[in-house]
Amino acid sequence: xxxxxxxxxxxxxxxxxxxxxxxxxxxxxxxxxxxxxxxxxxxxxxxxxxxxxxxxxxxxxxxxxxxxxxxxxxxxxxxxxxxxxxxxxxxxxxxxxxxxxxxxxxxxxxxxxxxxxxxxxxxxxxxxxxxxxxxxxxxxxxxxxxxxxxxxxxxxxxxxxxxxxxxxxxxxxxxxxxxxxxxxxxxxxxxxxxxxxxxxxxxxxxxxxxxxxxxxxxxxxxxxxxxxxxxxxxxxxxxxxxxxxxxxxxxxxxxxxxxxxxxxxxxxxxxxxxxxxxxxxxxxxxxxxxxxxxxxxxxxxxx
Length: 303
What we know:
Helix content: 25-40%
Radius of gyration: 20 Å
Number of domains: 2
CATH architecture of the largest domain: 3-Layer(aba) Sandwich
Largest sheet: 6 strands, parallel
Strand order of the largest sheet: 2-1-5-6-7-8
Distance between the termini: 23 Å
Strand content: 25-35%
CATH class of the largest domain: Alpha Beta
Oligomer: single chain
Number of helices: 8
Order of helices and strands: EHEEEEHEHEEHEHEEEEHEHEEH
Number of strands: 16
Shape: globular
């Protein structure tokens, strides 16, 4: 039988894309919150013996994680054969080591918890740093969708004479991949972070490309501090207003407005988190990765 797709609220478009690409059956849930904010949840179709995918991007994650656990547990009690989480944005990757005495490594904690009640994970460009691969902390089959090709195509089709600028030295290969698809040059920022909102950067060599449109790339726009500072630096050297492109549209607090006021030309994101800036559709790539994960588990060769 083809898999069933269930979605936490707000993930309907992703669920529809999974249904179409995988020839899956759309499942529905009844879900509401009691006055004390506890969750009531009911699965409305039988799932016994079925593979089930849960569409649930996990920005602003804390309450969503509880709802995810309750849905997965209910599906398990209903006899679901395998339960795979499709979370285009995967949270809790920032704290990937203990920096001070008494700190927990929340990336590992959340990974251990999710691995305890799920059978697979599909995500998009997780924020990896000291953890080099999700398989280091997740104890279930994982598929990671990489999107430089989709970003490169968008840049090639929408920006005149682009110059891609990556967020830091570690992004070099990622930015190079997008630049190859966009058929353009690229640079990377030199960044020194002093705090969550205090970032100093250098934009090396941008003066060599005075006729190019700067395209600032990042995996996540959260506070927006790096991109705001980069926009100011570019303006100071006489560069045209930059286009900002990111994978995940977190936009904490008033980050979107601050970035607009920094004088950028346009802000564009992938549709991993629903936001008005979404212009790059990666749902098909996500669906292909989910289908590959299920097929490889059937073959007994999943990572």
